[in-house]
């Protein structure tokens, strides 16, 4: 199971999922040992396939950092925080994340789009 290291220690993911909001974007930064990269990718693929079947899931994308060290960034878009919470706390998902290599450190955080006039819409 990956270790959890919040992006914001004052407001970790377990507090964020308790809020009502929508739509939300999960951003999750993963660090791990290079020797565990293939095991990490298999674990991520398995849990992403589970999430893709859940109500409220819109999309996901995994990115690998440029360079030698395997650092990954995942983002996933959900219709609402309530639907993400149901998937994130589902016993089947919780069991799947136990398959990640021990060196994996996950830093999940939820975000909402921000409108900036003339630049982007919310």
Automatic annotation (TrEMBL):
Task: Please state every residue range assigned to the domain named ABM.
Answer: 24-114
Return the InterPro entries for the record. Answer: ABM_dom, Dimeric_a/b-barrel
Tell me, what is one Gene Ontology molecular-function annotation carried by this entry?
Answer: monooxygenase activity
Q: Which UniProt keywords apply?
A: Monooxygenase, Oxidoreductase
Protein name in the entry: Heme-degrading monooxygenase HmoA
Task: Identify the species of origin.
Answer: Bradyrhizobium stylosanthis
